[in-house]
Amino acid sequence: MQDGLEKLFFYKEAQALYDVCWADTDKIRHDGRGKVLSVQMIRSMGSIPANIEEGYGRGFGKEYPRFLRIARGSAQETKGWYDRSRFLLPQDIVDQRKQKLNYIIACITKTINTISERNQKTSGPPKRKT
Q1: Partner of 45 for a Cys bridge, out of 21, 107, 115, 124, CB 3.0 to 4.6 A?
Q2: What is the pTM of this model?
Q3: 102-111 contact pairs (CB < 8 A, 24+)
Q4: For 37-88, what is each residue's pLDDT tens digit?
Q5: With contact defined as beta carbons under 8 Å apart, do 88 and 34 qualify?
Q6: Which domains does the chain have, with CATH numbers?
Q7: What distances in angstroms separate CA 94 from CA 3, 76, 97, one per listed residue?
């Protein structure tokens, strides 16, 4: 049975990209310099779906957008690690991964903005004392 989290397309994309990242890091970890890169890359990549999960699990108050911002930062960090791995991975692979990460970042940003707009509408202007 799927919960609401499994219906989030960008979450599924982040999960799938983690699996791909796992394979990428397996290729580069055999080089001494790639070992350090691979540890950082898999940690930052794993942080993306993990923070989406944690924020979603805490509900849709102020905490969910906060965890989405952390996930977005981890996605940005992972792009940097892919940039640094360009000496060990083919450039087309690096470009494909960064393109996927850009898509995830855009989806997370849109979700944050949507939630923020919705929260502003429901809270309304402050009530005046009479």
Answers
A1: 21
A2: 0.88
A3: 103/10, 103/13, 104/10, 104/13, 104/14, 104/17, 104/48, 104/75, 105/72, 105/75, 105/76, 107/9, 107/10, 107/13, 108/10, 108/52, 108/68, 108/71, 108/72, 108/75, 109/72, 111/10, 111/68
A4: 999 999 999 999 999 999 998 877 788 999 999 999 999 999 999 999 999 9
A5: yes
A6: 4-120 (1.20.1440.60)
A7: 32, 14, 5
